[in-house]
């Protein structure tokens, strides 16, 4: 196994044990970038010299016997909405031509303090306002979309061109590309990971979180991003033993999450849910509340908030935006204050209703996206009932509820469809219960072979 193929947990442990040098790891990742990046298009820019300097510093710290963070000496990619002092934050947009960040974002500061090496800035759908990231190709099938908006981050992790990466999630932008590329994505509880220095899409819905190759890796990354966070605070069982999930109540949705879902996706997620039950969990039927209002509430918040942030540039340089993003931003200027307030009210009611749901279940298990990676350029999904749905609408539909409630949501790979494309299962929890999801996901992962392998 080459160092770039190692999971975050195994690489960090090897660095701590002095079996692997951070320089060796970073050099392996950079060599992997040289090998596959031209074919994948995951990166806006590769920061090789900066990464090597950080790796050399991490190696000296390890040699000095200093206490090391759980991610020390590993190679990270940051979605190019995240500021790093002295580097451009392009947001994959012509609007940001010539931009250079004056200061580090909070998460960049924390990862630098944790001893990571930044190998590059990863592509996003322009300003995170889309679900395909057209600059980037899927790690498993180059003719298919990477997902978005954190498509570059997910493809970097899946292909071994980063040990882990950060993305942002406003309506599934971590979870969608993670699911489509067969990796793990965590949208933490709203506010757990700071947003300072991250270009916003929607202030009230945005989250920053990790994309990794295993659930265990996601927990390690979260510990570096939110140093005060500790999984031990959650009263869920630890993975291990013959019934590691005994006492955990898994909500199985009766509605919404399995409506208009590809048959292969539904079958894989239901099998994975049964596996959780085999590991000791108790299945509980749940009714998803206020399902008919999800899309209206989500768009009623996101669209005007995005338009408000971009209003100056939309007035001065509208032609610098891509046509899809420009159309969405212009639509946002037509949303009234009353519409935005109604969306806020619906979000509050929805959060309360989901809180009641979680009095009877510890988490909800559902598909992450209703269909696997579509072909590049495909604009619609046709369902057997005759419904035609836009690709972006399909990909955001099952992810948006967790953005509205602010609770954590974790996607992990649970199989492949008939074409060999990855399928993701989403675990959704109440705010502050990130550890419950991570423990359940890790228990599943331990029971299934092959977790953490990089795409060929």
From TrEMBL:
Residues 24-438 form the Amidase domain. InterPro entries: Amidase (IPR000120), Amidase_CS (IPR020556), Amidase_dom (IPR023631), AS_sf (IPR036928). This is Amidase.
């Amino acid at each position: 196994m080459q160092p770039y193929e190692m999971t975050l947990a195994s690489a960090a442990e090897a660095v701590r044990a002095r079996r692997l040098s951070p320089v060796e790891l970073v050099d392996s990742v950079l060599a992997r970038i040289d090998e596959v990046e031209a074919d994948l298009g995951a990166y806006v820019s590769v920061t090789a010299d900066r990464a090597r300097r950080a790796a050399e510093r991490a190696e000296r710290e390890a040699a000095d016997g200093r206490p090391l963070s759980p991610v020390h000496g590993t190679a990270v990619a940051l979605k190019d909405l995240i500021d790093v002092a002295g580097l451009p934050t392009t947001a994959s947009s012509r609007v940001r031509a010539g931009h250079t960040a004056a200061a580090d974002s909070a998460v960049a500061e924390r990862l630098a303090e944790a001893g990571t090496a930044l190998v590059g800035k990863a592509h996003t759908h322009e300003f995170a306002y889309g679900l395909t990231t057209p600059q980037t190709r899927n790690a498993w099938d180059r003719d298919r979309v990477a997902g978005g908006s954190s498509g570059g981050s997910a493809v970097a992790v899946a292909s071994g061109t980063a040990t882990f990466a950060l993305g942002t999630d406003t309506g599934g932008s971590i979870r969608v590309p993670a699911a489509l590329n067969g990796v793990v994505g965590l949208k933490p509880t709203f506010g757990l990971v700071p947003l300072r220095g991250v270009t916003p899409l929607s202030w009230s819905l945005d989250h920053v979180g990790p994309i990794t190759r295993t659930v265990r890796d996601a927990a390690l990354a979260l510990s570096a991003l939110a140093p005060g966070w500790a999984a031990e605070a959650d009263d869920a069982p630890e993975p291990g033993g013959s019934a590691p999930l005994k006492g955990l109540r898994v909500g199985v949705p009766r509605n919404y999450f399995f409506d208009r879902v590809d048959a292969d996706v539904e079958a894989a997620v239901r099998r994975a849910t049964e596996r959780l039950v085999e590991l000791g969990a108790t299945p509980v039927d749940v009714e998803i509340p206020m399902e008919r209002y999800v899309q209206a509430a989500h768009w009623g918040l996101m669209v005007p908030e995005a338009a408000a942030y971009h209003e100056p540039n939309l007035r001065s340089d509208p032609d610098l935006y891509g046509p899809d993003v420009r159309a969405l931003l212009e639509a946002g200027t037509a949303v009234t204050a009353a519409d935005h307030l109604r969306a806020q009210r619906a979000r509050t009611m929805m959060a309360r209703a989901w809180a009641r749901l979680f009095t009877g279940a510890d988490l909800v298990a559902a598909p992450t996206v209703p269909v696997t990676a579509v072909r590049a350029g495909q604009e619609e999904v046709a369902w057997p009932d005759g419904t035609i749905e836009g690709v972006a609408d399909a990909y955001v539909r099952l992810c948006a509820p967790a953005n509205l409630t602010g609770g954590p949501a974790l996607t992990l790979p649970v199989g492949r469809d008939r074409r060999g494309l990855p399928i993701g299962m989403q675990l959704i929890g109440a705010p502050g219960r990130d550890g419950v999801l991570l423990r359940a996901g890790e228990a599943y992962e331990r029971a299934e072979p092959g977790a953490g392998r990089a795409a060929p």
